[in-house]
């Protein structure tokens, strides 16, 4: 069903679907006596604006491999994907400006503050001046890192949960049209997790979001596909 839908959408050149997977495959070649490993097996899927797609499964199930292809870290073995109508094989430089990413492991600079992280990544999305400052403030408030001077402390002094919340804020700064979150709720307490899902629900109104988790119970009810 999804395969037929994707083929029709590609013929129509529609822009209503921020994310389209077109028979996407990732196979890691055999090495050191181990057989080839199929990480992503011919995925075809189309997400409308405001929709989210949840992937769950154990480590090694291909969740991170899929996201790594979407953000340009690895190339598909075959097939492709279109983000905002742009082919990931030929247009990643343009795609980056409308994409948000929360990786599986926090990629933060310990000597930068939470605010400085968001200022840096906000500029990469072409935010400037007062619009940038307002976006940073809003992002910090959304993930509860604004009050008590927390925003201006070095990330190296943050707890694991605070770092995770900052990574989520980084992925959403600038209202990206496409967001990939790899196990975003890892290390969060129940209250922080509920707050995170509220932020994600707000963010996906204008775009599409892909989330992963090792557990179905860790994914929110806002998921449209899984």
Automatic annotation (TrEMBL):
Q: Which family does it belong to?
A: Belongs to the ABC transporter superfamily. ABCA family. CPR flippase (TC 3.A.1.211) subfamily.
Instruction: State the CDD domains in the record.
Output: ABC_subfamily_A
Task: Tell me what this protein is called.
Answer: ABC transporter domain-containing protein
SMART domains, alphabetically? AAA (SM00382)
> What residue stretches are annotated with the ABC transporter domain?
19-226
- Would the keyword Kinase turn up in this protein's UniProt record? no
**SUPFAM superfamilies, sorted:** P-loop containing nucleoside triphosphate hydrolases
State the organism's lineage. Answer: Eukaryota, Viridiplantae, Streptophyta, Embryophyta, Tracheophyta
């Amino acid at each position: 069903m999804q395969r037929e839908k994707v083929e029709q959408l590609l013929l129509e050149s529609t822009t209503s679907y921020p994310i389209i997977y077109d028979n996407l495959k990732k196979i890691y070649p055999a090495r050191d006596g181990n057989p080839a490993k199929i990480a992503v097996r011919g995925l075809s899927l189309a997400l409308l604006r405001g929709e989210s797609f949840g992937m769950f499964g154990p480590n090694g199930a291909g969740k991170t491999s899929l996201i790594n292809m979407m953000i340009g870290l690895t190339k598909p073995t075959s097939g492709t994907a279109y983000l905002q109508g742009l082919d990931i094989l030929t247009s990643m430089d343009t795609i980056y400006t409308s994409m948000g990413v929360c990786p599986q492991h926090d990629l933060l600079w310990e000597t930068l503050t939470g605010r400085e992280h968001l200022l840096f990544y906000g500029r990469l999305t072409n935010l400037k001046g007062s619009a940038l400052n307002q976006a940073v403030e809003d992002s910090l408030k959304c993930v509860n890192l604004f009050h008590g001077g927390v925003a201006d402390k070095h990330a190296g002094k943050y707890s694991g949960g605070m770092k995770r919340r900052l990574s989520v804020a980084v992925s959403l700064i600038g209202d990206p049209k496409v967001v990939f979150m790899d196990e975003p709720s890892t290390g969060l307490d129940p209250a922080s997790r509920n707050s995170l899902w509220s932020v994600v629900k707000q963010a996906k109104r204008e775009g599409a979001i892909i989330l992963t988790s090792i557990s179905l119970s860790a994914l929110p009810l806002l998921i449209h596909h899984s």
